[in-house]
Amino acid sequence: GAVVSQHPSRVICKSGTSVKIECRSLDFQATTMFWYRQFPKQSLMLMATSNEGSKATYEQGVEKDKFLINHASLTLSTLTVTSAHPEDSSFYICSAPHNTGELFFGEGSRLTVL
Amino acid sequence: AQSVAQPEDQVNVAEGNPLTVKCTYSVSGNPYLFWYVQYPNRGLQFLLKYITGDNLVKGSYGFEAEFNKSQTSFHLKKPSALVSDSALYFCAVRDPPKWNGGYNKLIFGAGTRLAVHP
Question: What is the pLDDT of residue A47?
Answer without folding.
Answer: 94
